[in-house]
Amino acid sequence: MKILVVEDEELLRVNIIDYLTAEGNVCDFASCFDEASEKIALYDYDCILLDLTLPDGDGLKLLQALKQQNKSDGVIIITARSSVDQRIEGLSLGADDYLIKPFHLSELSARIMAVVRRRSFKGNDLVVFNELKIDIQSKTLKVNNETVNLTRKEFDLLLYFIANKSKVVSKSAVVTHIWGDHADMADSFDFIYTHIKNLRKKLIDAGCKDYFHSVYGVGYKFADE
Amino acid sequence: MKLFTAYNRVLLITSAIGLLIIGYLFYLTLSNYLNKQLDSYLSEELLEVKDYTAKKESFPAHQLFEDLVIEYRHISSLGKKRHFGDTIFYNAKKRLEESGRYLEEDVVLAGQSYRIKIIASKVAHSEQITSIFMVIILPVLGLLIVLLVLNRYMMKRTWLPFRQLLLNLKSFNLNQEQGFAQVPTTIAEFKELNDAIVDISQRIKSDYREIKLFTENAAHEMMTPIAVINAKLDMMLQSEDLSEVQSQNLIDLYKTTAKLTKLNQSLLLLVKIDNNLLRDREQLNLKTMLLEKQHYFQEFTQQKGIEVNLELQDHTLLMSRYLADILLDNLIGNAIRHNHKGGRIDIRLNEEALWVGNTGHGEALAETEAFKRFYKSPSSEGMGLGLAIVKQIVELHQFGIAYSYRAGLHAFTVFFNNNNSTSLLNENS
Questions:
Q1: What is the pLDDT of residues A81-115, one digit of tens each?
Q2: Structural domain of residue A208, as residue ranges?
Q3: Which residue in A has a C-alpha nearest to residue B220's C-alpha?
Q4: Per the structure, how many domains does chain A have?
Q5: Which runs of E-coded beta strand occur in chain A?
Q6: Which residues mediate DNA binding here (chain A) (predicted)?
Q7: A216 touching B, CB under 8 A?
Q8: Structure ipTM over 0.90, yes or no
């Protein structure tokens, strides 16, 4: 996938690019409004990560320009401003998703995957990972053509890990993904363990390889190793 | 006591006492003067009696002296000298008792000692006194009443701008956009007060605005560095040769960053509620939302073995969905977080109130403290902003909130109709 990262904070931009590149994406970047508008006009991207507060302009204007040029790039707004109004404005201007800083890179990666999938498959989306076949629409999982029943949270988790395959995903990121911002319960880390344990068991029982690898209690890695 | 009452009280007491003293003195002088007149009349009559007896050698019948009663009493020796006094006598003509003035003197008539008592009616004189008294005192009294009424009216009129100022001050709201309203007045003191209040309110407003702006900007500016830290941690996690110690450090760092994020979000949320930036009001079915929350928190309650009892009636409220969500999250989240294993959470919803009660550690919270920002019970791991946010949301929607601790249940009650809150609370306790 070809991704443009429009972000003026260099450290963050570098990290995002490193993480996404390691997943096999091609990343381009812009650190200011002018640079971004030039790149948007010149090239096509699968997904654009757009920071709204740029030193020399409002990111929402880039979004408008993009729509005027009839570009079909997916856009995920990444911003520190969490106002509801701005969120609605951004989404109504055609952004596909809205991510508030700070976020986990794994979350960003999952969102990018979802946006790109929505745009390119247009309804018929199937995620395949080795013997796993996931139908996003009907929320079903097939292992070796056998249906495996998953709870909604388990389904979400599996998709999340596949979006971040071969990466270590922190428990903290998983908690935020599953329970959102409001859940800051101290015990939520334990539930992640329980959910993953259940999911892992279901997959193995269905004849799937064990793709989950625990990393010293800090996170998990979903990989075919 | 109102200024007017205080002022009037002094005025009324002084004029009443003054009027009484003046009236008394006036009456005294007047009756004294009239008594003297009567006395000299009586003396003249006595002389006439003496003359008569000297001439005719007999006592005059009192028919000869109109309106007079003359009594003769035989006495053994001369004693008393001339003596005046007040008395009550029977007026035979009018056939009733009357007050009168008498003159008593011992005289020798035809060689015998007699005590003569001449009584004159005082009724005519009393009437005189009364009418003179009335003619003078009544207008004075009337004048006083007119002055009082006028005073009352003038005071009310003059203090009208002051009352308006007070009203404006009471309804002054820092968060309101419109500034402090000037009150039209011609009185210099009130004008000065008015200007001072307008000036101070403007200064407070601008200071407050700046503080809010500062908080908002500070919180926002912090989000990007936190995002960098978060991203760096995510990158560190990817390193192949992660040791166990490093992993443990990473866990702590993740937790701390999450806490910092949460703190920042809470501060931002408070600023937004303060500024009334979340105006997406819609009709919300609280019952449905509570049932969703029960599902959302299911794992947390199950893990702790907490029994959740719901007693919900359908109730719709006009609220911001975003804030209603946070309100319920915070209330229920608290009830879970501060609960013990195998505890209980009771949630009741009706048209008047939402009641969330939970078993928990420790004793009752200090009600006034509990809703303050950064207040934490000693066992709490949170930041102490949850309840402050709850209170802010409740206030924004003009609801009421109260905390109570009874029978081992910590309970928070959100009253949808703020006016009922106190009466309902009393009923409940």
A1: 776 677 788 888 888 999 988 899 999 999 998 88
A2: 126-222
A3: A80
A4: 2
A5: 2-6, 26-30, 47-51, 53-54, 57-58, 74-79, 97-100, 126-129, 132-135, 140-143, 146-148, 168-170, 212-215, 219-222
A6: 124-224
A7: yes
A8: no
